[in-house]
Write a structure and sequence with these properties.
The chain is mainly alpha-helical. Helix content is 62%, strand content 4%. The protein has 19 helices and four strands. The strands form two sheets. A two-stranded antiparallel sheet has the order 1-2. Strands 3-4 form a two-stranded antiparallel ribbon. Strand 1 and strand 2 form a beta hairpin. Helix 7 runs antiparallel to helix 10, helix 10 packs antiparallel against helix 11 and helix 14 packs across helix 15. The longest helix has 37 residues. The two termini are 49 Å apart.
């Protein structure tokens, strides 16, 4: 079919070149945004006297008809069109005739595609925020449920000090709160309308760009036409934020995978979020967590691809920028799927509180508190550190925990120990005496939960 730009050319484009150049296979994803932008543009053209009211109404009715037919399946978006803009305009002209040829007055495909991508990205940020919010609510519920669920805290994957599962979940709560805020920041920063910038230098038509921006829900028009058509910062920012979300999901998934293992048995995943083995009947595999962990690299790849694509592009628009779409669409869909499935997985998993508590007891997580006990009884910290090291070595040789040592055994290593050592190193004492904000005690966690309640209420 004839192209929108065909007047300059004397022969048809080679089919391979046409296919390579075309974007219809992926930019049809924002057909709705393209038509939404066109309708706002037409309303503005009529308001400024560039189109008559009759032309406006005819074009609007034509576009609405195309939209209805696409959504009902009556009209198919096919590869005979180079891009979604060509599809809409060609079908409009076919339906309403010469009035349809005025749709493109005062704009270029450059500012049109910049608008479409912004509208689509903006909409998806709202969807992503909703999914992150769902995850935050689940984490908040889990924190409330597990204030008294004792477990080992780890450094270097070694048991370090006793904490609660609420405290552990709270760490991810903070991560995903930051992720939510990043999405909000990107939305605010990108929310300016590029339509009316033309190919790169604006237009001689007396457009009302403020009106167009207002109709489309933007804070205002962009202020430089060259930047308007060549800006993909918001895509890079979004992919960076999505990469961070995936990094957080991947870290959490790694822990779920470890906790679900036979060696830990801290959690059991619901059957709906697990699979079995084709050959080993005893297996229950954490496939969702593993896939989330694996798909993180896919989203990272999208970020690196767009950064690499954009790094050498001179002002203003260049065809390279067409490469922003497929990777962004894929990354958004990937993160949305991962957020939804991960949230369902942790909402339905069963926590083995006994296994967590026993692991904390048997991992010498209370060794620091034993050292603190000695310090509080006048022993210099360095000496206390050495004494507790001897205690741990003794327990390892005997196959017991610090809680299981007799007072006589304690006194053989240091006469400073008295009967109150047992209370001092109990998991409950170790956790509950850490009361500063951000620590794992019930008092501290309840304060954080109250802060989170207020935070969630304002989302």
């Amino acid at each position: 079919m004839a192209q929108l730009w065909g007047g300059r050319f004397t022969k048809e484009t080679d089919q391979l070149v046409y296919n390579f150049n075309a974007s219809i296979s992926f930019d049809q994803k924002f057909y709705k945004e393209d038509m939404e932008g066109s309708m706002a543009h037409v309303k503005m053209l009529a308001a400024t006297g560039i189109l008559t009211e009759e032309e406006r109404d005819e074009i609007l009715a034509g576009i609405e008809g195309i939209l209805q037919d696409v959504e009902s399946g009556k009209l198919e978006i096919t590869s005979e069109y180079e891009d979604i803009h060509s599809f809409v305009e060609a079908n409009l002209i076919e339906r309403i005739g010469d009035a349809g040829k005025k749709l493109h007055t005062g704009r270029s495909r450059n500012d049109q595609v910049a608008l479409d991508m912004k509208l689509y990205t903006r909409k998806e940020i709202v969807n992503l925020k909703g999914l992150v919010k769902d995850l935050l609510y689940v984490l908040q519920d889990l924190m409330k449920e597990h204030i008294d669920t004792f477990m080992p805290g780890f450094t270097h994957l070694q048991k370090a000090q006793p904490i609660t599962l609420a405290h552990h979940f709270g760490a991810y709560m903070e991560m995903f709160k930051r992720d939510y805020e990043r999405l909000c920041d990107i939305y605010e920063r990108m929310n300016y309308c590029p339509l009316g910038s033309g190919a790169l230098a604006g237009t001689t038509y007396p457009l009302d760009r403020n009106m167009t921006a207002e109709l489309l829900g933007f804070k205002g028009p962009t202020l430089n036409s060259m930047d308007s058509v060549s800006d993909r910062d918001y895509v890079i920012e979004l992919l960076s934020a999505l990469s961070t979300i995936m990094m957080h999901l991947s870290r959490f998934s790694e822990e779920i995978i470890i906790w679900n293992s036979n060696e830990y048995r801290f959690v059991e995943l619901d059957d709906a979020y697990s699979t079995g083995s084709s050959i080993m009947p005893q297996k229950k595999n954490p496939d969702i967590a593993e896939l989330v962990r694996g798909k993180t690299g896919r989203v990272y790849g999208a970020l690196m691809q767009i950064l690499t694509t954009m790094k050498g592009i001179p002002l203003a628009y260049n065809k390279d920028m067409q490469e922003d779409k497929e990777l962004t669409f894929d990354a958004i869909d990937t993160v949305k799927g991962c957020l939804a499935l991960f949230t369902g997985m942790i909402r339905t998993m069963t926590v083995n509180k006994t296994a967590m508590e026993n692991s904390a007891k048997n991992g010498f997580t209370n060794a620091t508190d034993a050292a603190d006990y000695l310090v509080n009884h006048g022993v210099p910290f360095r000496d206390a550190h050495g004494i507790v090291g001897q205690l741990v070595l003794y327990c390892i040789e005997k196959g017991i925990s610090l809680d299981e040592m007799t007072l006589e055994e304690y006194k053989k290593i240091s006469p400073v120990f008295e009967e109150d050592i047992y209370e001092a190193i109990s998991l409950e004492t170790c956790v509950e005496k850490r009361t500063t904000i951000g620590a794992p005690s019930r008092e501290a966690i309840e304060k954080v939960i109250a802060i989170n309640e207020e935070y969630l209420a304002n989302l």
